[in-house]
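Note to self: keep these together.
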Amino acid sequence: MTTRATRGPRRRTVVALAVVLVVLVSFVVRLVDIQIVNASQHVGDAFSKGMRVTSKLEGARGTIVDTNGTPLATSLLRYHVVVNPKLAEKGMSLRDENGSLVKDENDKTVLVTWPEIAAQIAEVTGQDAAEVQAIADDAFAKDPADQFEYVKKFVSTAEFRKLADLQIPFISFEPIASRSYPNGAVAGNILGFVGSDGKPLEGVESLQNSCLAPTDGSIRYQKGADGVVIPGTAVEQPAKNGGTLALTIDADLQWYMQQLIAEETSRYQADWGGIIVMEVATGKIRALAETPTVDPNDPGASEPEDRGSRLLRFSFEPGSTFKPVTAATAIEQAGVTPESTVRVPDRMVFDNGAVVNDSENHATENLTLNGGLVTSSNVAMSQFGGMVDPQTRYEYLTKFGAGQPTGLDWSGEPKTTIAPADTWDNQTNYATTFGQAFTVTAVQVASAYQTFANHGLRMPASLVESCTKPDGTVVEPKLAAPEQVIKKETADEVSLMLENVFAQGTLADDIALPGYRMGGKTGTAQISDGKGGYKPNLYFTSLVGFAPAEDPKYVVLTVFDEPKKQRMSSANRSVFKKAMAQVLTHYRVMPSGSETPLLPVTG
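Structure:
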């Protein structure tokens, strides 16, 4: 029987247990609140009070590929190896394959000294063991509190894994994204390169950085006094990789053209040379090769002036390659035809006092418009051009690119020049009919012939196909709308005359490709001396054409700056023929099924 005396202590015990239980429940509830329900808030509070460590998470820079998806620029993950000198001086405990501490016969933990560890590191990194050891020793001697020194920068992923397997507690790694160009110098002048800090410095690496640049993330966490990360405190903002940039360039064709232009530039002792291959139906540039060039993996090995693109940054007087523009203007505005004639001496003094000479002496003859192009007569083209007023001719020249941007938005692109028609003096009035007194770029010359070959419809020149964002969104560049620059009938007449230039002119034997009809024109332009005159006996030479002429697929342009061995445009014949042959073979273009219809040269 329970007495009143025994009930008192028991009641106190129950009350005490209840109080303890309430306290325990309160602790559990609070612990769940801190670690689960409001964990992020409490971590955030801790961070806001300075109890944090923040590390950057690097995203990978986007890949650049050619039109077929071949990688031209990729990102690799490299690592900086970091040692804590303070901890390195103490060495580390030896562990077996299972991670257990190794004991000696006295049951003491076996220690591995820093010199022994340095030798293991050096075996992986390829450094001298004494060099690795000195990194921490010297740092510790200068500052015993120092906790950060680089052992080696930019080690490969394979080296990183070997070092990580050593399980050295005072060695850490900084992931660093580095750039690799697997095809070396192929398209190097277009691709550009990045600096050691990963920032783009040239080419599409810089111009298309909005597509390629990653968005770095971060991870924040707390560490204890021993440097160990406190579980549950990590807050991560993931990094985002850059997009994939697709170029219009065909890497295989680009490689061939770079080899070819290097060989031919050396052969003719030119300062530099270049080749452009443009697709007629689209305006897309399939090759833009030049020499000297740059290997983006090692831009420092090239001279500063060779690290960009001269084809995109050099302007020049086009010379005879723009005579077809005069022909088109005369057809549309003066009502002439390919068979219309003018009387052509080798030197002509016009009524306004201007003097025009042909490049070679010849007897006076009646040349057709076609003949003016076939013989590349300045005197003939001046007369045909003079049938149209200067302002109208100015407008046609600008429609074909003179004084206009190329539309590629390339950094350093030159401002091409052409003076307003009302400022032309007597000589300029005629010089403009045969490609002098104004400037263009190589891309604009190629684009002009793309227009002729495409029935007068100019497609905007382009180097970029698209940017594919990390989420799969495809963004295409904003290009100018196609423009019908001249009538289809006019373009077809000019194209047939350009065929006759190849079929009946001095180029007929040198550049003929059996089975293919081709059309085109040479150009020999004087080079400015920067003082208002021209360099003596030095020229910028070019040859541009399209094939197969009855249904043009590709335009090829070749240029040389100051060729010394052959100073005129005849230096371009060999390189043009080889380049066009490769293009037709590469794209498996069928031969022509007919011969060029020959037009009269004289009347």
